[in-house]
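Re: beginner question about structure tokens

> Can someone show what the tokenized structure looks like for a real chain? I only ever see the sequence side.

Sure, here's an example I had lying around. Input first:
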Amino acid sequence: MPSLLVVDDTPLIRSTIVHLLERERLDFNPVFEARDGIEAVECARQKRPDVVLMDIRMPGMDGLQASSHIRAELPNTRIVFLTAYDDFGYAQQALKLRAVDYLLKPVRPAKLVEVLDKLLKDIRSEPEVADPPAPIMKSSTAPPIRRDPVRRAVAFIQQHYDRPISLAEVAKSAHISPSHLAYTFKNALGTSYKQYLTAQRIDAAKRLLQTTDWAVEVIAEQVGYPNVTNFYRLFQRETGQTPASYRRQITV
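And the corresponding structure tokens:
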């Protein structure tokens, strides 16, 4: 059964969410709780939740920092941000962390139930893919990102796909040569560096088309394509639709 981690520094909010899960019979089991980012990372490492509901502003390590570490080590975990701050910068960082949603407090219970119910259905419909084992945390400071080159490369791409990046730049972040990275990346993930980068950008564009009314030109630039013509071509190649037709479809 899918598991859930609720992260918020306010006990009442955590208990309210847990009560809502019970009342609506959402089948998350077990449900874990954490008071801040450091506890969230520790819990995620030990319990490996399928979904994380993450507050952003918390003492110590904030939700964005914690999510970055969780994402690097548990790439299959779904992260939903719950925050009282309608901050464009936060939303951008959440997008870069591949958050599945960004909800503003006070969130309507019906909306939260809708998001969580959809995640449950998505998880159950997908084949089970195990995350790699996480290292043990040795202190209460920020945990290290995984050490192998592919993990470093993936983390770099996820953090910087919103601007033009080259294989050489990614290889430098992974501390290996571009040719070695190209081979290792394809061997480990079954896809090339370029295909992976394109997929990250197109997925981010889909989320923006779903959740904003931004012009397609703006979205293209936000996901690393300053040339909107290239964006149109790649989006249509990857999805079989133009950005405009995709947006119309998901808003019907």
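Each token stands for a local structural state, so reading them left to right follows the chain. Confidence is low (pLDDT under 50) at residues 135-147.
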